[in-house]
Amino acid sequence: MMPDNRSGVVRCEWGGAMRRLRLAIGELEELQEATGVGPFVLMQRLAADDWRVADVRETIRLGLIGGGMGAESADCLIDGMATMDLRLGVPAAIIVLAAALTGSPEEQQFKRARKSSGSDPELPEGRLRFGSFYRAAGAIGVSVTDMRTMTLWQFNEVVDGFVESKSDGKDAGLSPIEEDQLGALLAAPV
């Protein structure tokens, strides 16, 4: 398997051919719905060998779709492998999740969103509030369609670039008021 973490693409042998797998925000959202847990918890389950069938199947299926394969072709490929030992897919599932969540080793690693001030309870099982991504995209002028094609790392870098562009070169950070406003925006309930 050969990850290209800047784009989130992982190339691996799957179904008798070299395939591209990638999980952008849209696929991560579908993956969360299909597995009932957030992507970080899902990666932990896979790494701890405590996974469910849907964890491996859906990660690979959605990774194939995110990598450019049509949904029907990905469904047929996965359905055609019903007798396969799914343990063989666990490494690919872990690597494609890691590529989507962490970004390039040379670049700043994925930053976790700040925890809310306590007024907004966390979602169970490490689930993400995807509404926060939609609101942040709207606030910085990125279309929902464009945002859904990005990995979490890529979207984080877009947000960081937006913040830096608004700093007038005097201060690379947000003012305390701006930090509170952005924190409230990202922590708001969906």
From TrEMBL:
Pfam families: Phage_TAC_11. This is Gene transfer agent family protein.
